[in-house]
């Protein structure tokens, strides 16, 4: 009997005593650290997913190497550097006259549009760093696909972020030229709310304020 009473008292005490988590709500510093850790984990997962996608692509497409593949990578790098410097002369020699591009907004532009944007200072760029390259050569044609960390402006609008670029090359008179390109904005996955308790409290407060407003109106 005494044992049962003792167990009952211990149970009631445990129920009446708030837990450590209830007594000490998460501090702003801890909450920020948790959000940062989740963001880092999300970035790592996204990079792993991209690497897996690149591996799948490599399994289905023939692997290209040799001097032509090396030249395509070199041209892609020179074009990126020329974009940083707004070097219209270099860009002119790298693009085919019939060059056509689809930008991240879905607009179609040509070589003349690219050079005009540089001449009018409508296109500005201070970061253009490529990574995760895929190169393919098919005789006198080839393509380069890669991601890029980009920071710049176009017609006063920010085009900063991560983008995936596909460039199509043609070999004309022994020289490789960029004939077309397509740019896609890589949208990061949304970060879900971590502090569910705070979200519930905010919802209750909003509902309470709405009820008070209705009462005041009447």
UniProtKB/TrEMBL annotation:
<protein>
    <submittedName>
        <fullName>Nuclear transport factor 2 family protein</fullName>
    </submittedName>
</protein>
<feature type="domain" description="DUF4440">
    <location>
        <begin position="77"/>
        <end position="177"/>
    </location>
</feature>
<dbReference type="InterPro" id="IPR032710">
    <property type="entry name" value="NTF2-like_dom_sf"/>
</dbReference>
<dbReference type="InterPro" id="IPR027843">
    <property type="entry name" value="DUF4440"/>
</dbReference>
<dbReference type="Pfam" id="PF14534">
    <property type="entry name" value="DUF4440"/>
</dbReference>
């Amino acid at each position: 009997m005494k044992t049962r009473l003792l167990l009952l008292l211990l149970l009631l005490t445990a129920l009446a005593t708030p837990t450590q988590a209830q007594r000490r709500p998460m501090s702003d510093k801890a909450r920020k650290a948790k959000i940062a850790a989740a963001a880092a984990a999300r970035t790592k997962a996204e990079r792993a997913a991209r690497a897996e996608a690149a591996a799948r692509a490599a399994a289905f497409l023939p692997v290209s190497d040799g001097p032509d593949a090396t030249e395509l990578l070199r041209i892609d790098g020179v074009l990126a550097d020329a974009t940083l410097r707004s070097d219209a002369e270099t860009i002119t020699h790298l693009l085919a006259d019939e060059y056509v591009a689809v930008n991240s907004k879905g607009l179609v532009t040509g070589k003349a549009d690219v050079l005009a944007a540089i001449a009018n200072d409508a296109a500005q760029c201070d970061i253009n760093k490529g990574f995760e390259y895929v190169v393919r050569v098919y005789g006198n044609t080839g393509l380069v696909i890669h991601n890029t960390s980009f920071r710049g402006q176009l017609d006063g609008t920010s085009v900063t972020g991560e983008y995936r670029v596909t460039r199509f090359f043609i070999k004309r008179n022994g020289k490789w030229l960029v004939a077309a390109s397509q740019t896609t904005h890589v949208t990061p996955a949304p970060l879900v709310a971590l502090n569910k308790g705070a979200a519930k409290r905010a919802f209750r407060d909003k509902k309470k304020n709405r009820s008070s407003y209705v009462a005041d109106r009447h």
